């Protein structure tokens, strides 16, 4: 590596040490994670090439798999794994920061704020449960199934089992729509009704089913007529 390229590759790290991470651009932060560039392209240029793929959106990069990242020139398996790990840490930190264990859940908005960082920007569906005690404090959250591009399964028996194991009296379930449209389909309506009946049969409460879209959500509990009918 030429000295000029080495210096360019090190600048984001030096800048971070001297001025803090907040002083770095998105490209510079990515360059810190990538560490090295290519023979004919320094690490900042590789980082910018990656940003160009998603039109500058970090959320777009967070959606990319290891295989997809490796298609970007200059990013091999090791760099791709590092990027995926960094975005996963960011998602988990966002969930922790939401105050998942420090305050009760009083509304669909509260529940959405806790779980949306986990479910936004995914290219597949995931089904999660948020377990609550009688005072609506969160006992924990858990991914119960992962689906494909357009669907995931809802195992009512498993939801009930995990509620009993965690001594939860209620649960709020979530799943995402990769299309970005949070409106429920026929399968969502049927699955919610079946889950609600299974919970009630065991003396438990399905407090809400929230579908996460692109910056928005649909709450079955807010649709009080539907919940009452079920």
Q: How do the SSEs run, as a string of H and E?
A: HHHHHHHEEHEHEEH
Helix residue percentage: 40-55%
Largest sheet: 5 strands, mixed
Give the class from helix and strand content and strand pairing: alpha+beta
Q: Which percent band covers the strand fraction?
A: 5-15%
Shape: elongated
In round numbers, the mean pLDDT is 86
Using only CA atoms, what is the Rg? 21 Å
In spatial order, strands of the major sheet run 2-1-3-4-5
Strand segment count: 5
Low-confidence stretches: 1-9
* Span between termini: 67 Å
Please tally the helical runs, counting DSSP H or I stretches of 4 or more residues. Answer: 10
List keywords for this structure.
230 residues, alpha+beta, five-stranded mixed β-sheet, 10 helices, 15% strand
Question: Your description of this structure?
Answer:
The protein has 230 residues and is of the alpha+beta class. Helices cover 48% and strands 15% of the residues. The chain has helices at residues 3-19, 26-34, 43-53, 58-62, 66-69, 77-97, 108-119, 156-165, 186-201, 224-229; strands at 126-132, 138-146, 170-176, 205-212, 217-219. Helix 2 (26-34) packs across helix 3 and helix 8 (156-165) crosses helix 9 (186-201). It is elongated.
């Amino acid at each position: 590596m030429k000295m000029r390229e080495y210096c360019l590759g090190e600048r984001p790290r030096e800048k971070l040490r001297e001025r803090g991470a907040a002083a770095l651009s998105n490209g510079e932060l990515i360059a810190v994670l990538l560490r090295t560039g290519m023979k004919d392209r320094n690490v900042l240029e590789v980082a910018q090439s990656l940003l160009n793929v998603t039109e500058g959106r970090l959320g777009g990069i967070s959606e990319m798999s290891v295989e997809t990242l490796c298609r970007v020139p200059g990013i091999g398996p090791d760099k791709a794994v590092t990027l995926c790990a960094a975005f996963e840490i960011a998602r988990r930190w966002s969930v922790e920061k939401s105050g998942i264990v420090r305050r009760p859940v009083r509304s669909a908005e509260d529940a959405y704020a806790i779980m949306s960082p986990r479910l936004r920007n995914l290219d597949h569906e995931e089904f999660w449960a948020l377990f609550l005690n009688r005072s609506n404090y969160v006992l924990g959250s858990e991914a119960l199934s992962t689906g494909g591009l357009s669907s995931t399964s809802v195992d009512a028996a498993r939801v009930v089992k995990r509620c009993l194991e965690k001594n939860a009296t209620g649960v709020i379930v979530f799943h995402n729509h990769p299309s970005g449209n949070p409106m429920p389909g026929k399968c969502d309506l049927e699955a919610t009704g079946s889950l609600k009946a299974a919970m009630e049969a065991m003396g438990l409460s399905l407090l809400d089913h929230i579908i996460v879209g692109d910056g928005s959500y649909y709450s079955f509990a807010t649709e009080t007529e539907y919940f009452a009918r079920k």
